[in-house]
Amino acid sequence: MSVADGARPGEVRLATDPASIHDATLAFVGRILSPWTDRGDCPRNMREARERGREAAVEIGEPYRPALSGLAPGGFAHLLSWLQGSRRDLALQMPRHADRPTGTFALRSPVRPNPIGLHLVRILAIDTASGVLRIDAIDALDGTPLLDIKPYLPSVDRPPET
Amino acid sequence: MSVADGARPGEVRLATDPASIHDATLAFVGRILSPWTDRGDCPRNMREARERGREAAVEIGEPYRPALSGLAPGGFAHLLSWLQGSRRDLALQMPRHADRPTGTFALRSPVRPNPIGLHLVRILAIDTASGVLRIDAIDALDGTPLLDIKPYLPSVDRPPET
């Protein structure tokens, strides 16, 4: 580890950039159609995204459209995205407005060894022919590749009573 | 698309196996240490896993251990895993006990174009030196590669009031 180049004071870099490691490969199954084309303007999280009051969409690639069968509008789903512009080599990061560096696994920053975004969205409408799903909001840039859609199930996605 | 080889009636296969597409690459950051070594014995989801009453663990690879800094025991986190034994080429699947084929994106089956597992777990203890996190339960086989840890945040991970 070393202090990260071009990073904020206190940030620490991994010795090997995970981008150079090829343990497994991904296939993009679609892309996010988002109102946000500028990184500085993109909401930081889904709460901020909903507060902006702008709908978004997801376009599924043609081969994968049959896999939408059974998905219902009105329900919630997790989208998994590939945050392709993000660096992957930081172990400790300095979040904006934070007073000390924090480990990547304690943050929801897009900067992580595998920059997979997890977005809980409401599905408003589904057009199976065009593969376009309208969603309530998104905290990702226009064109962000999509990896997966998983229906939200309270029985497994909500912390259990303790 | 065609009827899937070695699959159940009604299942439909993608023309191109996503395993042969290399749009992006992943780095394994650790592995799951699980009581389940046999696929037939592995819980089907996190609810079933908790009902079994068996704790599990996650071991983070040495380079990534500093990234645990700031993660607190007692809280919940999403684990993202790589379900490496799963086929990736089914668009429509026939779940057990189902009466009709359903699209992959409407199911939580491990069979999906990108077999990324999403597991909401409670972190019981963290040993930063060894990189071992004890967790309450897991619905994955022993040795399953780990891709990411994301802290659970109710503000973004819980469906909003409507």
UniProtKB/TrEMBL annotation, chains A, B:
<dbReference type="InterPro" id="IPR040372">
    <property type="entry name" value="YaeB-like"/>
</dbReference>
<feature type="domain" description="TsaA-like">
    <location>
        <begin position="26"/>
        <end position="161"/>
    </location>
</feature>
<dbReference type="Pfam" id="PF01980">
    <property type="entry name" value="TrmO_N"/>
</dbReference>
<comment type="similarity">
    <text>Belongs to the tRNA methyltransferase O family.</text>
</comment>
<dbReference type="GO" id="GO:0008168">
    <property type="term" value="F:methyltransferase activity"/>
</dbReference>
<dbReference type="InterPro" id="IPR023370">
    <property type="entry name" value="TrmO-like_N"/>
</dbReference>
<dbReference type="GO" id="GO:0032259">
    <property type="term" value="P:methylation"/>
</dbReference>
<keyword id="KW-0808">Transferase</keyword>
<protein>
    <submittedName>
        <fullName>S-adenosylmethionine-dependent methyltransferase</fullName>
    </submittedName>
</protein>
<dbReference type="InterPro" id="IPR036413">
    <property type="entry name" value="YaeB-like_sf"/>
</dbReference>
<keyword id="KW-0489">Methyltransferase</keyword>
<dbReference type="InterPro" id="IPR036414">
    <property type="entry name" value="YaeB_N_sf"/>
</dbReference>
<keyword id="KW-0949">S-adenosyl-L-methionine</keyword>
